[in-house]
User: Fold this.
Amino acid sequence: MEFRKLRLSGFKSFVEPSELRIEPGLTGVVGPNGCGKSNLLEAIRWVMGENSPKSMRSGGMEDVIFAGTAGRPPRDFAEVVLHAADDDGDPLDVTRRIERGAGSAYRLNGDDVRAKDISLMFADAATGAHSPALVSQGKIAQVIAAKPTERRMMLEEAAGIAGLHVRRRDAESK
Ligand code: ATP
Ligand code: MG
Assistant:
């Protein structure tokens, strides 16, 4: 899978619709403190299904919606679209949208899908919200300090077998 473009609207500090091309290879994000670098990475995690408020640095899921500033009213929704492509080059356009009081919804190439469909798709492609391909602030120190079990989880994500565990847990609970 290849990520090609990211579109954000009302997500955290990205209040106006913004579009970023993701070029092949390693991508670094640079800019002054507070300009939104970490927010960008969080947007990628969020569209892939991240639901932990802690890894989104927020108290609740609706906190990803632009909260307003002195001169700007808050928004009532946040939307992130990740334009990706599968290994054959066919488009995989993933949209996640959250509205105040209405929760979040996902679309894949325009069709409504479940959160689980999205997280499994990314887990099978060896990427996903916890992918080691996304190196966020403090992550290097975290890898060094990780317990062996945590390190194993990182390796499993990288190897693309994390989705198998989800399916096994699912099967066991039925
Ligand atoms: P640093 O270099 O310090 O790591 P950064 O570029 O990673 O900074 P971010 O942490 O991505 O910056 O962005 C922080 C900014 O995002 C802050 O100004 C914060 O107020 C703003 N922000 C976060 N959530 C929201 C929200 N829901 N609504 C509006 N602004 C938000
Ligand atoms: Mg940061």
Remarks:
- Strands lie at 2-9, 18-21, 77-85, 91-99, 103-108, 111-113.
- The chain has a mean pLDDT of 90.
- The pocket of magnesium ion (ligand 2) is lined by residues 37-38, 137 (CB under 6 Å).
